[in-house]
Design goal:
Blueprint: E1 4-9, H1 20-29, E2 32-37, H2 42-54, E3 60-63, H3 69-72, H4 77-89, E4 98-104, H5 105-109, H6 114-131, E5 135-140, H7 143-151, E6 159-161, H8 171-176, E7 179-183, H9 193-205, E8 210-212, H10 232-243, H11 247-261
């Protein structure tokens, strides 16, 4: 096996400040060879770049830059304009993607602005296209609306629906627009039949369009546990069971797919 690729985590978060180097050692021991850190706000995107630059050992770490919808919901219109300008101006050329960004209906129900989230979504899709980068999307309970907005655009980047748990019937439509799907620690848990059907569908019908991730530290293998990139070995094992494959083939396929997704490339449409 060539090694595992954690397609989405938050190694820059302060949950790792005390033992980040040890976390990377454990990840390497678990077979992880590459990690991508998602950006969630301007300061976090800068910190993700710093963590990626400082990483030592046998694990390659890359960073993204983006404005997460939870963070967007803290801003007024002027604040969002300033944050988007800072995001654009501070890009260094090191970024693996623009993201994570997107739509979150749960956050809107707590007082966030759907209109502001959609404006941030459009601006960051534009930025990804302009820089020739893929996009990493966070979408919660508004996949239909996302599809409407994507279909209304003339040009799209490749985009990853990270931590996929959306409706199965939308997956072919998202694939047609340039969508990829990433599956995280939920696949290790009992139940989640819909999620595992989605995994089987994309692995069978579009074998080049699926990845695995940890979303660490937020998505641990057990309730309340801190997630780590090293947990990706357990994710790969659970995926192998769900697909009736061996773990080595899961690692090989998802690593190859992740390398392809995060490589430079032109816009989809």
């Amino acid at each position: 096996m060539s090694g595992l690729f954690d397609a989405h985590c938050h190694l820059d978060f302060d949950a790792f400040d005390e033992d980040r180097a040890a976390v990377l050692v454990r990840a390497e021991a678990a077979g992880v060879r590459e990690i991508v850190i998602a950006g969630v706000d301007p300061d976090g995107s800068a910190r993700a770049r710093e963590v990626a630059r400082a990483a030592l050992g046998g694990v390659r770490v890359r960073a993204c830059a983006g404005l997460h919808p939870w963070w967007v919901d803290r801003l007024d219109d002027d604040g969002l304009d300033a944050a988007l300008a800072r995001l654009r101006d501070e890009l260094t050329g090191e970024e693996a993607a623009i993201g994570e960004f997107g739509l979150d209906a749960a956050s809107v129900s707590r007082g966030g602005s759907a209109a502001r989230q959609e404006r941030a979504l459009g601006a960051q899709l534009d930025l990804a296209c302009a820089r020739g980068l893929p996009a990493v999307l966070h979408v919660v309970r508004c996949h239909d609306r996302l599809l409407e907005l994507l279909r209304a655009r003339d040009v799209l980047p490749r985009f990853l629906l990270h931590g996929w748990s959306g409706p199965e019937h939308l997956m072919p439509h998202l694939v047609a627009l340039g969508g990829w799907f990433s599956f995280g620690p939920r696949v290790t848990r009992d139940g989640h039949a819909k999620l595992k059907r989605s995994l089987r569908w994309v692995a069978s019908e579009h074998p080049g369009r699926w990845l695995i991730e940890t979303d660490a530290p937020d998505a641990g293998l057990s309730p309340g546990a801190r997630g780590e990139p090293g947990d990706l070995a357990a994710v790969a094992a659970a995926v192998a069971v769900a697909l009736c494959r061996d773990e080595a083939s899961v690692g090989d396929v998802t690593s190859r797919n992740a390398e392809t997704f995060y490589s430079d490339g032109a816009a989809w449409h």
